[in-house]
């Protein structure tokens, strides 16, 4: 005979109410669940489920594209070439485009620093709220830091487009990984 | 304290001065990068909150998580504004650079090493400390 399901006690109801919404209260298959105290964001709050973290990657893509565009204009005598290809035939058009790309590059760099800020904020708040920082998160933070440092150090130099290219590839990879798998590149490699 | 603050800014300025740039100013780059480093340093100090704040607080009041995030954001913004205002708007960078250029004349390499070490140590200690302490 199957045992009839009894109604929950008052204590059980109170415990369920006080539990964060993501916490089912059950141990996952394969072992005991790690206890966390974080509210709101939960274990995935760092990068994978946190859209804010992706702002950094978007910033890298914007910055990388703009810097590479500027470099392409410089290298290919773009002022005349672009002016002609756009059909206006003026150097002024190309100069305006170059100026626009310069602004886009600055915006991208700004987004990059805001994105780094969010990663720093996520790591810090996750630590303070008693959650565990995974290896993937550490590696992601390290790569982001190196990229931000490289972007700052090479700003306005001949090496900027190369760093921009690296930032573009990494940022696009992260965005793609996040869109298609819901995880970051590091989480796919190292696990969560 | 203010001497350390200005000295670290100067050492970062020397790092950025290593490369010739077009359309970017070394003092601006040093000021904004310094704010990132100072925020990271302050973030490490805030780690003690993990041991001060009662653990159940975050479990029963998830809004405190948002409060902690906002606190970290404000650290970042405040340092950015302080650096921009102190070094660039008040044009203190002119005084600091000329003072340390004369004080440490011919010791540019040492300044560069200090600037690089400060950056590397700040970032690596932040993440290493966060990973290590979170697993204890």
Report what the structure shows.
The complex is a heterodimer of chains A (192) and B (136). Chain A has 192 residues and is mainly α. Chain A has one domain. Helix content of chain A is 66%, strand content 0%. Chain A contains 7 helices and no strands. In chain A, helix 2 packs antiparallel against helix 4, helix 3 (78-85) crosses helix 4 and helix 4 (91-128) packs antiparallel against helix 5 (135-153). The longest helix of chain A has 38 residues, at 91-128. The radius of gyration of chain A is 24 Å and the shape is elongated. Chain B has 136 residues and is mainly α. Chain B has one domain (2-15, 27-134). Chain B is built from 7 helices and no strands. The radius of gyration of chain B is 18 Å and the shape is elongated. The mean pLDDT of chain B is 87. At the A-B interface, helix 4 and helix 5 of A face helix 2, helix 4, helix 5 and helix 7 of B.
């Amino acid at each position: 005979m199957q045992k009839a399901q009894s109604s929950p006690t008052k204590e059980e109801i109170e415990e369920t109410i006080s539990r964060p919404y993501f916490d089912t209260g059950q141990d996952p298959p394969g072992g005991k669940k790690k206890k966390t105290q974080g509210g709101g964001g939960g274990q995935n709050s760092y990068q994978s489920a946190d859209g804010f973290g992706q702002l950094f990657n978007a910033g890298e893509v914007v910055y990388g594209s703009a810097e590479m565009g500027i470099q392409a204009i410089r290298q290919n005598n773009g002022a005349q070439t672009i002016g002609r290809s756009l059909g206006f035939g003026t150097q002024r058009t190309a100069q305006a485009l170059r100026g626009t790309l310069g602004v886009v590059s600055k915006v991208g760099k700004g987004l990059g620093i805001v994105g780094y800020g969010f990663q720093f904020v996520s790591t810090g708040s996750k630590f303070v709220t008693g959650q565990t920082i995974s290896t993937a998160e550490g590696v992601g933070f390290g790569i982001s830091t190196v990229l931000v440092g490289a972007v700052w150090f090479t700003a306005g130099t001949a090496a900027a487009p190369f760093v921009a290219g690296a930032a573009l590839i990494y940022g696009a990879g992260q965005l793609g990984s996040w869109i298609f798998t819901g995880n970051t590149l590091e989480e796919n490699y190292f696990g969560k | 304290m203010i001497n350390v603050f200005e000295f670290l800014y100067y050492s970062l300025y020397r790092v950025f001065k290593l490369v010739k740039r077009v359309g970017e100013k070394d003092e601006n780059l040093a000021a904004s990068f310094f704010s990132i480093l100072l925020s990271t340093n302050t973030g490490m100090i805030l780690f003690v909150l993990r041991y001060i704040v009662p653990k159940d607080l975050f479990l029963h009041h998830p809004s405190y998580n948002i409060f902690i995030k906002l606190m970290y954001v404000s650290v970042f913004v405040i340092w950015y504004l302080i650096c921009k205002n102190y070094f660039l708007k008040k044009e203190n960078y002119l005084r600091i650079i000329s003072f340390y250029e004369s004080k440490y004349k011919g010791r540019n390499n040492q300044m560069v090493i200090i600037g690089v070490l400060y950056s590397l140590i700040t970032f690596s200690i932040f993440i290493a400390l966060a990973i290590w302490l979170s697993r204890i």
